[in-house]
């Protein structure tokens, strides 16, 4: 059984976000990029655990993006993925990205496709479901546990007000959330090995994006906090009622 | 024509579904056309509520295992799209919406905006829709170019005002015989939330962090929440330390919420925590460190010891409530 883990290249969580070109582009100058945390901590680490438990033969990373994402891909290889493929395209929208990943997975016969629950830059939670739609595969969305037994997977995933343990046959797509695995730190051996692991660059298949981003704006955030003393709690309650109008 | 996917949870039409119906009604007013709501196994009361939220027509299905696999729900929506000649389909950006909307998007080649926060602007054949990006730090205007359009609306972004509108109800039996569920449910677990509103839908939230020192001190947090009728939440380390159940964890890795009121007690206000709560309408921070970053993202702040402030705040709220009645 081969696992394909989709990874996205995103600005570090603490990045101060800025835009350029009249607020139409994300300004990447001086920004540190990382593997999207959910793709790394949950999807990739769980895939590696499954391989270590001899439940998977191979873990491949797939990234739709330009060469500036290679350093991020190498980080994933340093964590222990066997090889990687980069589909050489900017990846203009989720649908386009999903089409690329779906086509590659199908051609190479990957039985399990893992993604994170969402990316921390575009927060779409869409790619896993779109891949499942394109390939007509079952999707386990927002999974917090994942196990493999032969051709079957068992997973736990969130539902409204609870969770559910489900089973399905491979091939399948799973989007991974907190609970599935613990973050790992790459070691020196992994980092050295990553340099020589295969990173194949593939041309994108023909596809047309369905959406585009027209412009961005920063959330102004809160500008001033009204400070009250410990003895002004009645006043706070009054403000919440009359000023904020939330109680 | 606008189609809305709606759900019933705990025998109520979900609040996020009502928001979607109302949102769809506003889109229909912009583009012309009607709103059709799709629902499964709705009672007379449910149907009435969907009407009041703005549905013109309701397609009421009666499929007992619809919720077992999103493949089935997605197929049902596809039938409803055909039946109602919908060009715009609205979902809530919640657990079901996050699974079904992308699948439908891929199947219909309909552009999806996932997590919309405002009504679309109609620009020729395109829709321009605002949504949160960079985990709440920014917004983006997405343009949907495809003829069919899907919008997944972020819960608690759109107020619901019920009217006296009545919808035309049709029994709807889509033929799903060609679609096979491939998921077997082994076990269903329910979160113990008492009578509290589920976090993603809650209007009022009381949340606490590592500043509470240990799980034994949560009594006062629960009492504050009860006095308000609020739902309890927590920061990530609190869930990681098993002081509180995981479903209470809010923030970037946990649940993202946008209640009217978010009271944060003993939470430092790390950027990853803010990512999940900065959409709240009003934020109150209680922290004994005046340098705590959370004060920069708060509307009201009290600098001091939570252990003395929280019980006093509970008293103040009880007094206020007693006075109101
Ligand atoms: C990629 C990533 C994702 C993350 N995702 C999340 C997430 O989803 N949610 C999340 O919460 N965190 C998340 N974190 C962790 C986050 O960075 C912080 O570590 C975490 O939010 C801190 O939790 P806290 O505020 O409860 O604890 P602390 O940072 O320890 O803060 C405790 C606060 O309590 C105050 N305090 C102490 N005693 C008292 C008292 N007696 N009275 C009043 N105040 C008191 C202190 O002044 C302090 O401000 C993430 C981190 C990373 C790197």
What this model shows, in words?
- The complex is a heterodimer of chains A (247) and B (325).
- Chain A is an alpha/beta fold and 247 residues long.
- Chain A has one domain: Rossmann fold.
- Chain A has helices at residues 37-52, 70-79, 94-108, 127-135, 188-196, 233-242; strands spanning 2-6, 9-11, 19-20, 25-26, 33-35, 58-65, 83-88, 112-116, 139-149, 152-159, 162-169, 172-176, 199-202, 211-218, 226-228.
- In chain A, helix 2 (70-79) crosses helix 5 and helix 3 packs across helix 4.
- By secondary structure, chain B is α/β, with parallel strands linked by helices.
- Helices cover 30% and strands 27% of the residues of chain B.
- Chain B has helices spanning 15-31, 44-53, 70-84, 95-108, 219-228, 236-240, 271-277, 306-324; strands spanning 2-5, 8-9, 12-13, 35-40, 57-61, 88-92, 111-116, 121-123, 126-133, 138-144, 149-153, 168-171, 183-190, 204-208, 231-234, 261-265, 282-287, 300-303.
- In chain B, the strands form four sheets. Chain B has a seven-stranded parallel sheet with strand order 7-11-6-1-4-5-12, sandwiched between helices. In chain B, strands 15-14-16-17-18 form a five-stranded parallel sheet.
- The longest helix of chain B is centred in the C-terminal third of the chain and has 19 residues, at 306-324.
- Chain B is elongated and about 60 Å long.
- The interface between A and B is large, with 80 and 97 residues.
- Flavin-adenine dinucleotide (FAD) binds next to helix 6, helix 7, strand 17 and helix 8 of chain B.
Concise account of the structure shown:
Chain A has 247 residues and is an alpha/beta fold. Chain A contains six helices and 15 strands.
Task: Annotate the secondary structure layout.
The complex is a heterodimer of chains A (247) and B (325).
Chain A: E1 2-6, E2 9-11, E3 19-20, E4 25-26, E5 33-35, H1 37-52, E6 58-65, H2 70-79, E7 83-88, H3 94-108, E8 112-116, H4 127-135, E9 139-149, E10 152-159, E11 162-169, E12 172-176, H5 188-196, E13 199-202, E14 211-218, E15 226-228, H6 233-242
Parallel strand pairs in A: 1-6, 1-8, 6-7, 7-13, 8-12, 9-12
Antiparallel strand pairs in A: 2-5, 3-4, 9-10, 10-11
Helix pairs in contact in A: 2-5, 3-4
Chain B: E1 2-5, E2 8-9, E3 12-13, H1 15-31, E4 35-40, H2 44-53, E5 57-61, H3 70-84, E6 88-92, H4 95-108, E7 111-116, E8 121-123, E9 126-133, E10 138-144, E11 149-153, E12 168-171, E13 183-190, E14 204-208, H5 219-228, E15 231-234, H6 236-240, E16 261-265, H7 271-277, E17 282-287, E18 300-303, H8 306-324
Parallel strand pairs in B: 1-4, 1-6, 4-5, 5-12, 6-11, 7-11, 14-15, 14-16, 16-17, 17-18
Antiparallel strand pairs in B: 2-3, 8-9, 9-10
The structure holds flavin-adenine dinucleotide.
């Amino acid at each position: 059984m081969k696992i394909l883990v989709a990874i996205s290249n995103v600005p570090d969580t603490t990045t101060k976000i800025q835009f350029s070109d009249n607020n139409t582009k994300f300004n990447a100058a001086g920004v540190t990029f990382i593997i999207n945390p959910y793709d790394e901590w949950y999807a990739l680490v769980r895939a590696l655990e499954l391989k270590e438990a001899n439940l998977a033969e191979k873990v491949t990373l797939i990234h739709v993006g330009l060469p500036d994402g290679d350093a991020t891909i190498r980080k994933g290889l340093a964590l222990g993925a066997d090889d990687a493929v980069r589909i050489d395209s900017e990846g203009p929208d989720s649908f386009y990205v999903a089409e690329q990943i779906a086509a590659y997975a199908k051609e190479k016969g990957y039985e399990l496709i893992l993604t994170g629950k969402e990316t921390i830059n575009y927060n779409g939670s869409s790619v896993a479901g779109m891949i499942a739609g394109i390939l007509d595969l079952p999707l386990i969305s927002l999974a917090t546990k994942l196990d493999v037994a032969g051709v079957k997977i068992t997973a736990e995933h969130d539902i409204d007000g609870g969770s559910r343990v489900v089973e399905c046959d491979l091939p399948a797509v799973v989007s991974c959330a907190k609970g599935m695995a613990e973050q790992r730190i790459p070691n020196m051996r992994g980092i050295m090995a990553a340099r020589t692991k295969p990173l194949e660059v593939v041309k994108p298949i023909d596809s047309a994006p369905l959406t585009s981003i027209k412009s961005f704006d920063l959330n102004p955030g809160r500008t001033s906090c009204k400070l009250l003393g410990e003895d002004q709690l009645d006043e706070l309650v009054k403000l919440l009622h009359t000023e904020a109008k939330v109680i | 024509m606008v189609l809305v996917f709606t759900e019933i949870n705990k025998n109520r039409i979900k609040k996020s579904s009502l928001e979607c119906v109302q949102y769809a009604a506003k889109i229909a007013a912009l583009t012309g056309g009607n709103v059709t709501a799709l629902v499964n196994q709705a009672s007379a009361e449910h149907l009435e509520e969907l009407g009041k939220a703005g549905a013109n027509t309701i397609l009421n299905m009666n499929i007992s295992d619809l919720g077992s696999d999103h493949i089935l729900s997605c197929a049902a929506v596809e039938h409803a799209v055909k039946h109602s000649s919908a060009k715009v389909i609205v979902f809530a950006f919640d657990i079901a919406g996050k699974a079904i909307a992308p699948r439908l998007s891929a199947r219909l080649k309909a552009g999806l905006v996932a997590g919309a926060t405002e009504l679309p602007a109609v620009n020729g054949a395109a829709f321009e829709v605002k949504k949160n990006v960079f985990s709440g730090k920014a917004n983006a205007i997405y343009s949907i170019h495809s003829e069919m359009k899907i919008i997944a609306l972020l819960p608690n972004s759109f107020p619901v005002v019920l009217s006296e509108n009545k919808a035309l109800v049709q029994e709807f039996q889509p033929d799903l015989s060609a679609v096979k569920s491939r998921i077997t449910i082994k076990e269903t677990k329910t979160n113990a939330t008492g009578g509290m509103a589920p976090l993603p839908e809650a209007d009022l939230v009381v949340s606490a962090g590592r500043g509470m020192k240990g799980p034994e001190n949560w009594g006062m947090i629960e009492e504050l929440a009860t006095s308000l009728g609020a739902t309890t939440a927590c920061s990530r380390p609190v869930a990681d330390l098993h002081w509180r159940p995981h479903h209470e964890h809010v923030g970037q890795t946990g649940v993202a919420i946008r209640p009217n009121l978010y009271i944060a007690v003993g939470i430092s206000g790390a950027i990853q925590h803010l990512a999940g709560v900065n959409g709240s309408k009003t934020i109150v921070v209680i922290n004994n460190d005046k340098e705590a970053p959370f004060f920069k993202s708060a509307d009201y702040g009290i600098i001091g010891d939570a252990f003395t402030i929280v019980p006093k705040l509970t008293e103040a709220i009880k007094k206020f409530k007693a006075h109101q009645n």
